[in-house]
Recover the amino acids of this structure.
């Protein structure tokens, strides 16, 4: 069984936000909704101060609280572990937003822009639009899909997921520091599994939430 | 040493809970607020008044509207208005029917079903008593609207069970996910249930006073027990898991921060402790009982609303990562 996952080596991140912008471009996310931001914080005081970066995104949890809380069934977890939001089914209760420990759900509220109303969630500049899974709907919730449209395109066209740029999430492809690795967590020979093994396993965000994330970290401050 | 100081971040706009600010802080949820507090309060009162009227045997003799007991009219009205507020608050109100879909895991779906079942079954129960223009068009239905026969009793029991779920589910919606530590506690649905029950008894006593019927010592004792239990539930919730990230910030806001006055004044003192004292006094002093009952109503209902609103407003997510605190290692895939 395949379980797509991402390893983020936080120690490599330089805070350029290229992933944030690449994601926004790829997914045409609504105004103010950032699926893949890089949070930053300062530690210490001059002259011993450091600036830390932490790329975050949907954790595609095995026990996803957003899926549990969603009353309409708009949020589902695919067999390959990717948590999807069907904006046509979403009723906009925002229960998922209060249930997610990671702030990974985004409400598309009318803020005077109609720029992306009705547009495919994935503008799909890199793969044909027919692979798009979501279409932005006002009053609905959207989220990171690990660029599922690119993964599906890659699988259909014999491209290696997590390696070929057309079959890999936009944030991973664009990262200049190569701090993101994407692949099959259930395959011990995959790039993600090998990377985790080489670092003695990964860490997760908000471990107290017990969500079993597929997004894992090494090198956390 | 770290200079990170997770503060309860504010900011405007509910587009995202916190990722619109790219820094590592505890974040206050901003997606549910006053509409939800009103909805939670009305659902609690609606379900509770139906039950309180029957437990206290006060459905009859307190006035009628179109042949339906006033107590039931208040109950149906509260739930109908609460449901309308809920639907209006949805991002896509026309899709509200989909709220019934995920009964397997979603408390909101459970709530939607319990609201519907309550309104339908309780409505059916009282339908034979409906009076329109002097006639009772549904009087031929084969059950007693007061639950005096098998059919009526069955409807009453089903409606009563649905009413309990209606009173409880809002708290369960908040308590189930672990994302917000202040909410993630059985004390939250317990507080909501006890607050709903206390408000409902007060509402029924107010209806009694308006109808010119005497409030009894037993009713005051019941109200005293409910407010005492509510006070204990509130205090226990304030005293548990106090150092946990997220809950610590919530307690800071409630007990020492911007909501200190509202919480201590309107929820704890005026909304719970004072009604408890008044109920104890009312149980002993028969002469002042009606006035005390009205006073309890005036204190408990706003107190219940503020309990819910402040619970929502101190819903704080801890930072997604606390520097220097390692999580257990995954197996590597």
């Amino acid at each position: 069984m395949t379980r797509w996952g991402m390893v983020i080596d936080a120690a490599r991140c330089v805070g350029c936000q290229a992933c944030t912008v690449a994601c926004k471009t790829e997914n045409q996310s609504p105004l103010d909704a950032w699926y893949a931001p890089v949070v930053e914080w300062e530690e210490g005081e001059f002259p011993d101060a450091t600036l830390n970066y932490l790329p975050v995104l949907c954790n595609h949890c095995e026990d996803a609280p957003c899926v549990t809380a969603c009353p309409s069934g708009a949020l589902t977890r695919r067999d390959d572990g990717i948590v999807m939001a069907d904006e046509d089914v979403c009723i906009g209760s925002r229960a998922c937003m209060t249930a997610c420990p990671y702030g990974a759900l985004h409400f598309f509220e009318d803020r005077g822009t109609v720029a992306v109303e009705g547009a495919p969630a994935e503008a799909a500049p890199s793969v044909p639009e027919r692979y798009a899974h979501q279409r932005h709907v006002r009053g609905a919730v959207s989220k990171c899909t690990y660029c599922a449209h690119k993964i599906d395109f890659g699988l259909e066209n014999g491209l290696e997921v997590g390696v070929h740029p057309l079959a890999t999430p936009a944030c991973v492809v664009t990262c200049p520091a190569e701090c993101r690795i994407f692949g099959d967590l259930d395959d011990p020979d995959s790039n993600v599994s090998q990377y985790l093994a080489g670092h003695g396993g990964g860490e997760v965000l908000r471990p107290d939430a017990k969500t079993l994330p597929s997004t894992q970290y090494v090198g956390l401050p | 040493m770290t200079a990170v100081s997770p503060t309860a971040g504010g900011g405007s706009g509910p587009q995202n809970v916190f990722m619109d600010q790219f820094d590592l802080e505890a974040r206050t949820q901003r997606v549910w607020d006053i509409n939800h507090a009103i909805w939670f309060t009305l659902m609690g009162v609606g379900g509770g008044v139906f039950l309180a009227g029957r437990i206290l045997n006060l459905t009859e003799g307190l006035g009628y509207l179109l042949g339906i007991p006033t107590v039931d009219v208040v109950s149906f009205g509260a739930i109908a208005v609460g449901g309308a507020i809920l639907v209006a608050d949805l991002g896509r109100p026309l899709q509200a029917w989909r709220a019934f879909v995920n009964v397997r895991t979603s408390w909101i779906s459970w709530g939607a079903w319990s609201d519907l079942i309550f309104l339908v079954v309780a409505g059916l129960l009282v339908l034979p008593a409906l009076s329109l223009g002097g006639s009772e068009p549904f009087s031929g239905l084969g059950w007693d609207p007061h639950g005096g026969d098998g059919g009526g009793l069955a409807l009453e029991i089903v409606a009563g069970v649905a009413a309990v779920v209606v009173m409880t589910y809002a708290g369960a919606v908040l308590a189930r996910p672990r994302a917000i530590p202040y909410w993630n506690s059985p004390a939250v649905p317990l507080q909501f249930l006890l607050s709903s029950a206390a408000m409902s008894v007060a509402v029924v006593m107010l209806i009694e006073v308006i109808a010119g019927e005497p409030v009894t010592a037993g009713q005051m004792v019941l109200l005293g027990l409910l407010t005492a239990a509510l006070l204990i539930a509130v205090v226990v919730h304030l005293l548990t898991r106090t150092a946990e990230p997220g809950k610590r910030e919530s307690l800071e806001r409630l007990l020492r921060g911007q909501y200190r006055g509202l919480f201590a004044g309107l929820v704890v003192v005026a909304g719970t402790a004072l009604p408890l004292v008044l109920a104890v006094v009312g149980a002993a002093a028969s002469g002042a009982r009606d006035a005390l009952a009205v006073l309890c109503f005036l204190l408990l209902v706003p107190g219940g609303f503020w309990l819910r609103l402040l619970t929502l407003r101190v819903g704080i997510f801890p930072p997604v990562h606390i520097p220097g605190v390692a999580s257990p290692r995954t197996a590597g895939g």
Q: What stands out?
A: The CA atoms of residues 18 and 175 of chain A lie 6 Å apart.
